[in-house]
Structures are given as C-alpha cells and as structure tokens.
Amino acid sequence: LQVSHTASCRVIRLQATCCQFAQNQLSHIKSSAMGKETPLVSSRRLSNAEGDPVAVVRVRNLQTTIQGPKDAWGRGSKQQPLLISAAVSLTHAFPSSSADDEVSDTVHYGLLSKSILSTLEKLPKSALSLSDVLNRLWVDLTGFQYTGVKDPSAEQTKAFLQTSLIRRLSISLVLPKASLMGSAIRLTGSCLFVDSAITARSLELGLEGIRVPTLIGVNSNERKAKQVVITNIRIDEYQTAHDDYAVIESIIVDAMSESSFETLEALAASLAFHIARELRTKRDDFYGEIIRIGLEKPTAVPLAEAACVELTVKTEDVKIEVSKTKDVRFDDTRNRVAGSAGATKSHDSKS
C-alpha cells in the first residue's frame, strides 16, 4: 500500500508539472500575439526544452562581408568578414514524399542561404551592431523580432520560413577578425516555436580562443616565465544592443596578464569576478545572466594537447564590493575586491 501510494503521488506530481508546462507555453503564445517580449532562458535550458530533434536542416559558415559591427579595436562601420550558420529543426521527420524530390514540407538549404545573403545585402551601411544584424535576419526568416515580438513588417512581407513547420531556429554570427587576441567573436540566438509562436529564446555571446601569456602554475619552472593560456568565454542570457566584446576582451587580457595564480581554477574565478563586475556596474542595459569560462594550458602536460578547466557562474552570485582605492584586484581566498593594503598583506603571508 505504501509503494502504491508513493507511485500515485509521483504520477500526480508529474501530471501537475505537465499542466504547468502547458500553461506556460500557452501564456508565451498569448504574449507574443499581444506584443510582449519572450523572456530569455539559458541555451542549455532551451535545448532541454526542445528535446531530441527529429529533422534538422543546416547551413554552416556561409561567408560574406559586413559593414557595421565593431571591429577588434572597437571601431564601427568598418568592413570585415562575417560567417553565418543557421540550423532549422523541424516539427516532423522528413516526409516520405522526399523520394520524388519535393521540398514543400521541409526547408531548402539553397534558398535559405540566398535568403540570408539577400537580407545582409539590404542592410544599411550604418553603425549596426551585431545584435541588430541578428534581429534583421530573424525578422526576414520568421516574421518575428528575436525578442519574440511579431514584427510589423510581417503583415506586408511574407517570412521565408513557414513557422508552423519549425520547432527550433538557431542563427550564429561569427566575426573572425573582430578579436585582437582571439580567434573569433560569436553571437548565437535560438528560439523554440509552438503553434507558429516563439515560446522560448536564448542569446549567447562568445569570445573564442583568446591567447594570453600568463604567469601560472605550481612548478618552479612555471614561476620563471609566462606561458600561453587559451581562454574561451561564453556569456549566456546576454542582453545588449551594443557591441562591447572588444571591451570585455580587454578586461580579460588585462586580468590574465597581471595575474600570477598557481592554478587555472583560481584564474577562472578571478576572470568571473572581472567579467561580472563589467556586466553589472557599467550600464543597466548591458547584462549577461550566466558566465561560462574555459581555460587551457597547451604546454602543461607534454603528452596531452592541453590541460583544461571550466567554470560556470551566475553573474548575480559573484560577490562584488566597490573599492575606494585605485589598486583593485581579485582576492581569491575571500572572493571579493581587495584594496592595496589587503593585497600586500595577502602577498606577504604567502611569501
């Protein structure tokens, strides 16, 4: 009887969870219709909500040039290369009619590529941010802005994609020359569709392959000279209309260049502090909820490609105190900002 009662409770809880999820989906659909923005969720949460895709059509690294988003020096309206990747997850598997080469119930990747390039060709030669470019692609492909709001132009112009066939759309914009020390800047937006309305969306900024000579390590030889540390940063639930990736990169490079930690773990925690402080204190509309940090030491283990650590933190959980002194650094032992006096004391105690 006790086992039966426990199983019944689990079934009831599961039914309640399903009902709540259905209510949330319905409310998101109504919100989109009423012109309300769809809240951001993390990229992983969105993937979990999607489940296993049954059919996906992709275009990867479509190459073009663009004038608008800031370059590696933070200058706008400079022409630079752009790579676009798009992935369309369908609500149903490819139909059996695909045997006679009909594509009415799927997405033609050739036409998808042409639609993307056509949108980019129509962009004004002005100081558009990377998020502006993403939004324009979103409108032309779906009829929705990437905020989840139906775009007014959708009433006069038909969107390229038939949203009733789509479960998820992901668009990734990569600027391979917009980083001084890294390999690329990446902005990725994704959304889920239910009944032709956006019910969930994610937005993530990535700073990839930042190579900085850093004094790090516990061995005596590692304390004598700097070695290259490769950093990959992803800022999830990222919201801003500005191109501030050059600012974030400079903060990362400065923090790593001036550090002398013994472990990658301590360095990752330090970077989390510096990035969170920038996101939380500089501007109200510049914010990222989750910071994912990956660090690699290529020369640490001779027979391995690299030694790696990863850290994920919520921006709001990083402890930040405003210091009145100019000499501000991250204090690893107390997870807060320490002034010059505290830094000297900590250094003396270690030595």
TrEMBL record:
Dihydroneopterin aldolase/epimerase domain segment(s): 205-313
Group of enzyme by EC: lyase
UniProt catalytic activity: 7,8-dihydroneopterin = 6-hydroxymethyl-7,8-dihydropterin + glycolaldehyde
Entry-linked SUPFAM superfamilies: Tetrahydrobiopterin biosynthesis enzymes-like
UniProt key word Lyase: yes
UniProt keywords, alphabetically: Folate biosynthesis, Lyase
UniProt EC number: 4.1.2.25
Pfam families in the cross-refs: FolB (PF02152)
GO cellular component: cytoplasm
Pathway: Cofactor biosynthesis; tetrahydrofolate biosynthesis; 2-amino-4-hydroxy-6-hydroxymethyl-7,8-dihydropteridine diphosphate from 7,8-dihydroneopterin triphosphate: step 3/4
An example Gene Ontology biological process: folic acid biosynthetic process
Domain of life, per lineage: Eukaryota
GO MF, one annotated term: dihydroneopterin aldolase activity
InterPro entries: Dihydroneopterin_aldolase (IPR006156), FolB_dom (IPR006157), GTP-CH-I_C/QueF (IPR043133)
Record family assignment: Belongs to the DHNA family.
Protein name: dihydroneopterin aldolase
